[in-house]
Amino acid sequence: MFEAVLLTVITAATPLLIAAVGELVVERSGVLNLGVEGMMIMGAVIGFAVANQTGSGTLGVFAAVGAGMAMSALFAVLVLFLVANQVATGLALTILGIGFSGMIGEAFIGVPGLDLPQLYIPVLSEIPFIGPVFFQQDALVYISFALVALVAYGLFRTRVGLVLRAVGDNHGSAHALGYSVVKIRFMAILFGGACAGLAGAYLSLAYTPQWVENMTAGRGWIALALVVFSSWLPLRVVVGAYLFGAVSVLNLHAQALEFDIPSQLLSSLPYLATIVVLVLISANRRLTLVNTPACLGKPFVPDR
Q: Which of its termini does the chain have fewer beta carbons within 10 Å around, N or C?
């Protein structure tokens, strides 16, 4: 029983973790992208469509990453070059992604999906409990942890990460030192879009291998909350993602155990938990200011 619960928590947490770590990099550069939900849903539909038409889950994953990057590039052009409002543009990106994905995915509703294969490591995969949990996951689960390690190392152990954080904390000073703020932010936004697209691919190719309209179901917003919950620190994102993943699967297991709790209440728990966490963080000003990029959400216009 515990093994089954843990496996479902892993599958529920993985898309949140991937999307959140990508958005963390974006926000560390000083940009607030509220379009994570739209990029995820586009990644989900494009990934499913390509996998269905080609018979290759790998191509579906790459296509989903490309779709997320394309959506994020649109956002980057609007907020970096045209200096559009970041909040309004991110919301518009989400609305666009939800509507466009519904149009593209209409032909794929009810079509059987292509499930990503699980990895199998001889001997290790056969160990009771440990084998199925740690050594029989699909590749994207391991990629999610690799992304966290890569981002944590890159942000705090490399010169590139130092420059990225400097841009997020004081874009004026970074520009005065000769760094291209717009270029750095553009690359960060593309990375965030790639992660969001990858998270979408996980939903339609691994979590529930099928296309369902609005299948992200607010996970993009939860990923945004996770970034704040983690105080913009990559390793804390892992804790938050798995905590929220556990809450999201509570509904399924509570119903299986026949608890006398309305299913509607259980289904709303992840979103209620998101609201509670944000309220608690906002109430603590010191916690809110810790690691928060000083230029987050502020537009940058280079001197001419």
A: C
CA distances from 92 to 44, 48, 75 (A): 18, 23, 9
Residues ≥6 apart with Cβ < 8 Å to 189: 26, 29, 31, 33, 72, 73, 75, 76, 80
Nearest to 114 by CA among 216, 10, 206, 15: 206
Cα separation, 125 vs 133, whole angstroms: 9
In a domain, 99, yes or no: yes
Tokens representing 92 are 């518009």
Instruction: Judge if pTM exceeds 0.85.
Output: yes
Asked, for residue 295, whether it belongs to a domain, the answer is: no
The C-alpha atoms of residue 41 and residue 48 are separated, in whole angstroms, by: 11
Q: Which domain holds residue 169?
A: 2-289
